[in-house]
Amino acid sequence: MSWRVSIRVAGQHDLDEVRRWYEEQRPGLGDEFLAAVAVALIRLEADPLRPAVYYRSFRRILTRRFPYKLCYHVEGETVVVFRVLHGSREHGRQLQPSGAS
User: Fold this and answer.
1) Rounded distance, CA 99 to CA 101, Å?
2) 52, 50, 56, 48: which is closest to 81 by C-alpha?
3) What are the residues whose beta carbons fall under 8 Å from the beta carbon of 60, sequence distance 6 or more?
4) Which of 37, 44, 57, 62 is the least buried, fewest Cβ under 10 Å from its Cβ?
């Protein structure tokens, strides 16, 4: 099966914010973060059902090297990434599938 990955507005905002923060720490580190996210997205395209359900109907995939998780749903043949969140925090209230964009 061919999966399509889509990132909601809140998830894109998370990516932009984290990239900016890493870039302030060291030039180029923000791009390294985005590269780690890209690898996670490729893993999602290959097998989004592999990670177990994490919270309600959400699944998560962890980035390598950086302590972030991509929280997503599988909707038909589409993988919808809702948020990109720091791995050491609880984020139940931030995961709102209905009406979120």
Assistant:
1) 6
2) 48
3) 51, 54, 69, 70, 71, 72
4) 57
Calpha distance 51→44 (Å, rounded): 9
Alpha carbon distance, N-terminus to C-terminus of the chain: 26
Domains of the chain: 4-88 (3.30.2310.20)
pLDDT score of 97 more than 70:
no
Work out the number of other CB atoms within 10 angstroms of the CB of residue 85.
21
pLDDT 10s digits, 34-83 = 999 999 999 999 999 998 898 888 999 999 999 999 999 999 999 999 99
User: 78-86 and 68-75: which strand pairing?
Assistant: antiparallel
Nearest to 56, CA basis, from 82, 89, 38, 84: 82
Dig out the tokens for 60 from the structure.
Answer: 């998560």
